[in-house]
Amino acid sequence: MSETKTNFIRRELVNWYREEKRDLPWRHSRDPYHIWISEVMLQQTRVDTVIPYFERFIQAFPTMQHLAAAEEGDLLKLWEGLGYYSRARNLQHGVREVIEEYQAKVPETREEISSIRGIGPYTAGAILSIAYGKPEHAVDGNVMRVLSRLYAIEEDIALPKTRKTFEQLVTLLIDPEDASSFNQGLMELGALICTPQKPKCLLCPVREECRAFEEGKTDSLPIKSKKTKVKKITYSAYLLQRADGKWLVEQRGEGLLAKMWQFPLIEATDTSWQERYGITWIDVESIGEVTHKFSHLTWDIQVFQGKVEQKENAQLGQWVTEEELAKLPLPVPVQKMMRLRVDRSLEN
Ligand code: SF4
């Protein structure tokens, strides 16, 4: 790697970041706990979406001790809508580990920090560099895209083994004097300038040394193979009320959206579900459809709403008031269903 190119990229990237960085709430803090929260929230979620979540979260759990002591329901309620709920649970678990095993101080070495639940190589590098100024790599998809273009690296960034190439490259490139600005500069460049489509090369601070720009390869890099096909599942969801106005809900088990709450969500082939919830129809109608995409799966849901009678012997479900429903952690597909609801009290 040419010394001149390395120095140029370091200097221009760090200067550009210092001048152009967005004013984001987590950038006002060097508290490793705050950086940790922001990095977990930012995985797969847009910055604009994360800002209010981050602010509410810090207000509710200003220290690791507050988060460690939180009820899981309160934690999930604050995370509601961000998705990837296992991350919230892992964050709480990780914070408890830091309190118990590291005297409530987030460790400063990659080896120790990587042993904490939920902290992978990227989050470890982000916390170490941003909070502690350590020259540690923090490589995610954004960073791989930028570096693929800068160095015309033609390795498939969808393959897990490719990440190592980029981690080694960042380790050589990173500014030891200001690792925080360097890593955040790479991330910021990927978010604002070197975007997946139509990178804004004319505004780019490192264009002079960019091989993809020089060789006209900005559209063909990075190389990213397509993911395997997303599976589809068709469900019916039932938003059911008893005569006293209470809603039938249930808590999910382990796995996808673990422990979140939902209305009965029934696979299309299941014909005996009403017995398990101990209900009989009075008046139920279709109120619309909801589609929800996870990374590996799509749910197509036909949504029904109606009045039912409760019999004895229900094996599943709980009945809650409208106020109780509002306090439960509800995943995004269920929130979408809530927005379809028709006010039945105005009818008849
Ligand atoms: Fe990305 Fe263009 Fe800058 Fe190269 S010049 S790093 S392709 S924005």
UniProtKB/TrEMBL annotation:
What InterPro entries does the database record attribute to this sequence?
A/G_AdeGlyc_MutY (IPR005760), DNA_glycosylase (IPR011257), Endonuclease3_FeS-loop_motif (IPR003651), Endouclease-III_FeS-bd_BS (IPR004035), HhH-GPD_domain (IPR003265), HhH_base_excis_C (IPR023170), HhH_motif (IPR000445), MIG/MutY (IPR044298)
Please share the entry's free-text remark on the cofactor.
Binds 1 [4Fe-4S] cluster.
Which is one Pfam family of this protein?
HhH-GPD
Obligatory cofactor(s):
[4Fe-4S] cluster
Q: What molecular functions are annotated in GO for this chain? A: 4 iron, 4 sulfur cluster binding; 8-oxo-7,8-dihydroguanine DNA N-glycosylase activity; adenine/guanine mispair binding; metal ion binding; oxidized purine DNA binding; purine-specific mismatch base pair DNA N-glycosylase activity
Q: What class of enzyme is it?
A: hydrolase
CDD domains linked to this entry: ENDO3c, NUDIX_DNA_Glycosylase_C-MutY
Keywords attached to this Swiss-Prot or TrEMBL record, sorted alphabetically, are: 4Fe-4S, DNA damage, DNA repair, Glycosidase, Hydrolase, Iron, Iron-sulfur, Metal-binding
User: HhH-GPD domain location, by residue?
Assistant: 41-192
What chemistry does it catalyse, as a reaction equation? Hydrolyzes free adenine bases from 7,8-dihydro-8-oxoguanine:adenine mismatched double-stranded DNA, leaving an apurinic site
Asked if the Swiss-Prot or TrEMBL record annotates the protein with the keyword Hydrolase, the reply is: yes
Q: What is its EC number?
A: 3.2.2.31
Question: Could you give a single Gene Ontology term from the biological process aspect?
Answer: base-excision repair
Query: PANTHER family, per this entry?
Result: ADENINE DNA GLYCOSYLASE
Q: What does the UniProt record say this protein does?
A: Adenine glycosylase active on G-A mispairs. MutY also corrects error-prone DNA synthesis past GO lesions which are due to the oxidatively damaged form of guanine: 7,8-dihydro-8-oxoguanine (8-oxo-dGTP).
What protein family does this chain belong to? Answer: Belongs to the Nth/MutY family.
Protein name (record): Adenine DNA glycosylase
Q: What is the lineage of its organism?
A: Bacteria, Bacillati, Bacillota, Bacilli, Bacillales
Give the gene that encodes this protein.
mutY
